[in-house]
Design brief:
It contains eight helices and nine strands. A hairpin with a 4-residue loop joins strand 8 and strand 9. The longest helix is centred in the last third of the chain and has 19 residues, at 231-249. The chain starts with 7 loop residues before the first strand and ends with a helix. Helix 4 packs across helix 5. The chain has a single domain, classed as P-loop containing nucleotide triphosphate hydrolases (Rossmann fold). It has helices at 47-54, 94-98, 100-104, 110-122, 138-151, 168-181, 194-200, 231-249, and strands at 8-18, 21-31, 36-40, 62-69, 79-82, 156-160, 186-190, 203-208, 213-218. By secondary structure, it is of the alpha/beta class. The protein is globular. It is 34% helix and 24% strand. A six-stranded mixed β-sheet has the order 5-6-7-3-8-9, sandwiched between helices. Adenosine-5'-triphosphate (ATP) is lined by residues 18, 23, 41, 43-49.
Length: 250
Protein backbone atom coordinates (compact mmCIF):
# COMPACT_ATOMS: atom_id res chain seq x y z
CA UNK A 1 0.00 0.00 0.00
CA UNK A 2 2.77 2.43 0.89
CA UNK A 3 4.41 4.53 -1.80
CA UNK A 4 7.68 4.65 0.17
CA UNK A 5 9.64 1.68 1.50
CA UNK A 6 8.39 0.67 4.93
CA UNK A 7 11.28 1.17 7.35
CA UNK A 8 12.20 -0.88 10.38
CA UNK A 9 11.89 0.94 13.70
CA UNK A 10 14.82 0.79 16.08
CA UNK A 11 14.28 1.71 19.71
CA UNK A 12 17.79 2.21 21.03
CA UNK A 13 18.41 2.45 24.78
CA UNK A 14 15.45 4.69 25.50
CA UNK A 15 14.99 5.96 29.04
CA UNK A 16 12.18 8.07 30.41
CA UNK A 17 11.23 9.09 33.95
CA UNK A 18 7.91 10.48 35.08
CA UNK A 19 8.05 12.29 38.44
CA UNK A 20 11.38 10.67 39.26
CA UNK A 21 10.11 7.16 38.56
CA UNK A 22 11.67 5.37 35.58
CA UNK A 23 9.11 4.14 33.06
CA UNK A 24 11.77 3.05 30.55
CA UNK A 25 15.41 2.37 31.37
CA UNK A 26 17.64 1.60 28.42
CA UNK A 27 14.75 -0.02 26.57
CA UNK A 28 15.85 -1.45 23.22
CA UNK A 29 13.68 -3.07 20.60
CA UNK A 30 13.72 -3.72 16.86
CA UNK A 31 10.47 -3.68 14.93
CA UNK A 32 10.76 -5.13 11.43
CA UNK A 33 9.94 -3.04 8.37
CA UNK A 34 6.86 -3.96 6.35
CA UNK A 35 5.47 -6.10 9.17
CA UNK A 36 2.92 -5.71 11.95
CA UNK A 37 4.16 -5.67 15.52
CA UNK A 38 1.57 -5.93 18.27
CA UNK A 39 2.48 -4.63 21.70
CA UNK A 40 0.83 -6.16 24.75
CA UNK A 41 1.41 -5.46 28.41
CA UNK A 42 -0.29 -4.49 31.65
CA UNK A 43 -2.21 -1.26 31.90
CA UNK A 44 0.10 1.65 32.65
CA UNK A 45 3.31 -0.16 31.67
CA UNK A 46 4.09 2.43 28.97
CA UNK A 47 2.65 1.13 25.68
CA UNK A 48 1.03 4.40 24.61
CA UNK A 49 4.08 6.38 25.70
CA UNK A 50 6.31 4.15 23.59
CA UNK A 51 4.01 4.69 20.61
CA UNK A 52 4.14 8.47 21.15
CA UNK A 53 7.94 8.35 21.24
CA UNK A 54 8.00 6.36 17.99
CA UNK A 55 5.67 8.99 16.51
CA UNK A 56 8.38 11.51 17.27
CA UNK A 57 6.92 13.22 20.31
CA UNK A 58 9.46 15.72 21.51
CA UNK A 59 7.19 16.73 24.38
CA UNK A 60 8.39 13.76 26.43
CA UNK A 61 11.68 14.01 28.36
CA UNK A 62 13.21 10.85 26.93
CA UNK A 63 16.84 9.99 26.22
CA UNK A 64 18.22 7.42 23.82
CA UNK A 65 17.21 7.18 20.19
CA UNK A 66 14.33 5.99 18.06
CA UNK A 67 15.07 5.83 14.37
CA UNK A 68 13.69 4.48 11.13
CA UNK A 69 15.97 2.28 9.04
CA UNK A 70 16.38 3.18 6.27
CA UNK A 71 15.88 6.83 7.10
CA UNK A 72 12.90 8.30 5.23
CA UNK A 73 13.42 10.95 2.59
CA UNK A 74 13.60 14.28 4.33
CA UNK A 75 10.45 15.89 2.99
CA UNK A 76 8.06 13.08 3.83
CA UNK A 77 6.59 12.32 7.21
CA UNK A 78 6.22 8.53 7.05
CA UNK A 79 3.91 8.10 10.02
CA UNK A 80 0.14 7.86 10.34
CA UNK A 81 -1.22 7.82 13.86
CA UNK A 82 -4.41 6.68 15.53
CA UNK A 83 -4.60 7.47 19.24
CA UNK A 84 -6.97 6.16 21.89
CA UNK A 85 -9.32 9.11 21.47
CA UNK A 86 -10.98 9.20 18.09
CA UNK A 87 -10.66 12.99 17.66
CA UNK A 88 -12.97 13.21 14.69
CA UNK A 89 -13.63 16.85 13.89
CA UNK A 90 -17.16 17.45 15.20
CA UNK A 91 -18.19 19.80 12.38
CA UNK A 92 -17.21 17.47 9.53
CA UNK A 93 -19.37 14.64 8.17
CA UNK A 94 -17.90 11.16 8.43
CA UNK A 95 -16.65 11.04 4.84
CA UNK A 96 -14.83 14.34 5.24
CA UNK A 97 -13.29 13.15 8.50
CA UNK A 98 -12.04 10.06 6.70
CA UNK A 99 -10.58 12.36 4.04
CA UNK A 100 -9.13 14.82 6.55
CA UNK A 101 -5.44 14.25 5.66
CA UNK A 102 -6.02 14.81 1.94
CA UNK A 103 -8.24 17.78 2.73
CA UNK A 104 -5.56 19.45 4.88
CA UNK A 105 -2.96 18.86 2.19
CA UNK A 106 -5.28 20.19 -0.54
CA UNK A 107 -5.11 16.84 -2.30
CA UNK A 108 -8.80 15.98 -2.47
CA UNK A 109 -9.82 14.20 -5.66
CA UNK A 110 -12.78 12.22 -6.96
CA UNK A 111 -10.80 9.03 -6.80
CA UNK A 112 -9.84 9.57 -3.14
CA UNK A 113 -13.46 10.33 -2.36
CA UNK A 114 -14.50 7.09 -4.04
CA UNK A 115 -11.89 5.22 -2.01
CA UNK A 116 -13.18 6.78 1.20
CA UNK A 117 -16.77 5.87 0.33
CA UNK A 118 -15.71 2.30 -0.47
CA UNK A 119 -13.89 2.00 2.86
CA UNK A 120 -16.88 3.39 4.73
CA UNK A 121 -18.99 0.74 3.03
CA UNK A 122 -16.52 -2.03 3.88
CA UNK A 123 -16.42 -0.87 7.50
CA UNK A 124 -20.18 -1.34 7.75
CA UNK A 125 -20.90 2.38 7.85
CA UNK A 126 -22.81 2.74 4.57
CA UNK A 127 -25.61 5.26 5.00
CA UNK A 128 -23.61 7.31 7.53
CA UNK A 129 -21.31 9.06 5.03
CA UNK A 130 -22.81 12.47 5.77
CA UNK A 131 -23.40 11.90 9.49
CA UNK A 132 -21.70 14.20 11.97
CA UNK A 133 -19.60 12.50 14.69
CA UNK A 134 -22.07 13.44 17.46
CA UNK A 135 -24.72 11.29 15.81
CA UNK A 136 -22.44 8.23 15.66
CA UNK A 137 -21.87 5.66 18.39
CA UNK A 138 -18.43 5.35 20.03
CA UNK A 139 -17.65 2.26 17.96
CA UNK A 140 -18.72 4.00 14.74
CA UNK A 141 -16.50 6.97 15.51
CA UNK A 142 -13.62 4.64 16.22
CA UNK A 143 -14.17 3.00 12.84
CA UNK A 144 -14.14 6.46 11.25
CA UNK A 145 -10.83 7.27 12.95
CA UNK A 146 -9.38 3.95 11.81
CA UNK A 147 -10.46 4.58 8.21
CA UNK A 148 -8.93 8.05 8.36
CA UNK A 149 -5.63 6.47 9.46
CA UNK A 150 -5.80 3.78 6.78
CA UNK A 151 -6.57 6.37 4.08
CA UNK A 152 -3.21 7.98 4.75
CA UNK A 153 -1.36 5.03 3.18
CA UNK A 154 1.80 5.87 5.10
CA UNK A 155 4.69 3.42 5.28
CA UNK A 156 4.47 3.52 9.09
CA UNK A 157 1.18 3.22 10.99
CA UNK A 158 0.99 3.58 14.75
CA UNK A 159 -2.30 2.54 16.28
CA UNK A 160 -3.28 2.60 19.94
CA UNK A 161 -6.09 0.12 20.64
CA UNK A 162 -7.80 0.83 17.31
CA UNK A 163 -10.52 -1.81 17.75
CA UNK A 164 -11.21 -1.47 21.48
CA UNK A 165 -14.72 0.01 21.18
CA UNK A 166 -15.98 -2.57 18.68
CA UNK A 167 -18.20 -5.60 19.19
CA UNK A 168 -16.58 -8.97 18.44
CA UNK A 169 -17.87 -9.34 14.88
CA UNK A 170 -17.22 -5.77 13.79
CA UNK A 171 -13.82 -6.06 15.39
CA UNK A 172 -12.97 -9.12 13.31
CA UNK A 173 -14.23 -7.48 10.15
CA UNK A 174 -12.20 -4.34 10.77
CA UNK A 175 -9.12 -6.36 11.71
CA UNK A 176 -9.36 -8.07 8.31
CA UNK A 177 -9.82 -4.75 6.54
CA UNK A 178 -6.88 -3.19 8.39
CA UNK A 179 -4.65 -6.21 7.67
CA UNK A 180 -5.48 -5.98 3.96
CA UNK A 181 -4.92 -2.23 3.73
CA UNK A 182 -1.72 -2.17 5.75
CA UNK A 183 -0.02 -5.10 4.01
CA UNK A 184 3.54 -4.01 3.27
CA UNK A 185 3.54 -1.17 5.81
CA UNK A 186 5.33 -1.12 9.14
CA UNK A 187 2.52 -1.27 11.68
CA UNK A 188 2.81 -0.94 15.44
CA UNK A 189 -0.44 -1.82 17.14
CA UNK A 190 -1.01 -1.52 20.87
CA UNK A 191 -3.72 -3.82 22.13
CA UNK A 192 -5.04 -5.39 25.32
CA UNK A 193 -6.45 -8.31 23.38
CA UNK A 194 -4.10 -11.32 23.02
CA UNK A 195 -6.33 -12.86 20.35
CA UNK A 196 -6.14 -9.67 18.31
CA UNK A 197 -2.35 -9.72 18.60
CA UNK A 198 -2.32 -13.36 17.48
CA UNK A 199 -4.58 -12.62 14.50
CA UNK A 200 -2.69 -9.53 13.33
CA UNK A 201 0.90 -9.69 14.56
CA UNK A 202 3.90 -10.87 12.58
CA UNK A 203 5.62 -10.16 15.85
CA UNK A 204 4.12 -9.88 19.34
CA UNK A 205 6.07 -7.97 21.94
CA UNK A 206 5.01 -8.53 25.54
CA UNK A 207 6.09 -5.79 27.94
CA UNK A 208 6.23 -6.22 31.72
CA UNK A 209 7.78 -4.88 34.87
CA UNK A 210 8.80 -1.50 36.18
CA UNK A 211 10.82 -0.03 34.58
CA UNK A 212 9.26 -1.86 31.71
CA UNK A 213 11.24 -4.51 29.87
CA UNK A 214 10.59 -6.81 26.93
CA UNK A 215 9.32 -9.95 28.65
CA UNK A 216 8.76 -11.99 25.50
CA UNK A 217 8.77 -11.75 21.73
CA UNK A 218 6.56 -14.19 19.85
CA UNK A 219 6.46 -14.89 16.14
CA UNK A 220 3.23 -16.75 15.38
CA UNK A 221 3.28 -18.97 12.30
CA UNK A 222 1.64 -17.92 9.04
CA UNK A 223 0.67 -14.49 7.78
CA UNK A 224 -1.94 -12.19 9.27
CA UNK A 225 -4.86 -11.97 9.40
CA UNK A 226 -5.02 -15.45 10.93
CA UNK A 227 -8.34 -17.21 11.14
CA UNK A 228 -9.88 -16.95 14.61
CA UNK A 229 -10.78 -20.66 14.61
CA UNK A 230 -7.23 -21.75 13.79
CA UNK A 231 -6.48 -24.37 16.52
CA UNK A 232 -2.89 -23.09 16.82
CA UNK A 233 -4.30 -19.72 17.78
CA UNK A 234 -6.33 -21.14 20.65
CA UNK A 235 -3.24 -22.82 22.06
CA UNK A 236 -1.10 -19.69 21.74
CA UNK A 237 -3.94 -17.61 23.18
CA UNK A 238 -3.73 -19.61 26.41
CA UNK A 239 0.06 -19.31 26.51
CA UNK A 240 -0.09 -15.58 25.89
CA UNK A 241 -2.68 -15.07 28.62
CA UNK A 242 -0.46 -16.92 31.05
CA UNK A 243 2.50 -14.74 30.08
CA UNK A 244 0.44 -11.61 30.58
CA UNK A 245 -0.69 -12.79 34.00
CA UNK A 246 2.94 -13.40 34.96
CA UNK A 247 3.72 -9.88 33.66
CA UNK A 248 1.01 -8.38 35.91
CA UNK A 249 2.71 -10.02 38.87
CA UNK A 250 6.23 -8.98 37.82
N1 LIG B 1 2.75 13.04 30.20
C1 LIG B 1 2.82 12.29 31.30
N2 LIG B 1 3.20 12.80 32.48
C2 LIG B 1 3.30 12.04 33.59
N3 LIG B 1 3.04 10.71 33.62
C3 LIG B 1 2.64 10.14 32.48
C4 LIG B 1 2.51 10.88 31.25
N4 LIG B 1 2.10 10.04 30.27
C5 LIG B 1 1.98 8.83 30.85
N5 LIG B 1 2.31 8.89 32.16
C6 LIG B 1 2.35 7.76 33.09
O1 LIG B 1 3.18 6.78 32.52
C7 LIG B 1 2.66 5.48 32.72
C8 LIG B 1 2.47 4.79 31.39
O2 LIG B 1 1.36 5.38 30.69
P1 LIG B 1 0.89 4.80 29.28
O3 LIG B 1 -0.33 5.56 28.90
O4 LIG B 1 2.03 4.80 28.35
O5 LIG B 1 0.54 3.30 29.68
P2 LIG B 1 -0.21 2.16 28.83
O6 LIG B 1 0.60 0.93 28.99
O7 LIG B 1 -0.47 2.63 27.45
O8 LIG B 1 -1.56 2.05 29.64
P3 LIG B 1 -3.04 1.57 29.17
O9 LIG B 1 -2.87 0.16 28.73
O10 LIG B 1 -3.84 1.68 30.42
O11 LIG B 1 -3.48 2.49 28.06
C9 LIG B 1 1.38 5.65 33.54
O12 LIG B 1 1.69 5.47 34.88
C10 LIG B 1 0.99 7.09 33.26
O13 LIG B 1 0.32 7.63 34.36
Amino acid sequence: MAAHPAPAIVVDRVSLDFAGKPLFQDLSLQLPGGRTTCILGPSGCGKSTLLKLIAGSTALPASGEIRFEPLPVADTLPVAWMGQNDLLLPWLPLVDNVLLGARLRHELSDSLRQQALQLIHEAGLAGYEQALPRSLSGGMRQRGALLRTLMEQRPVLLMDEPFSALDALTRMRLQNLAARLTAGATVVLVTHDPLEALRLGDLIVVLAGSPVRVAEILKPNGRPPREPDDPALALQHGQLLRLLMQGEDA
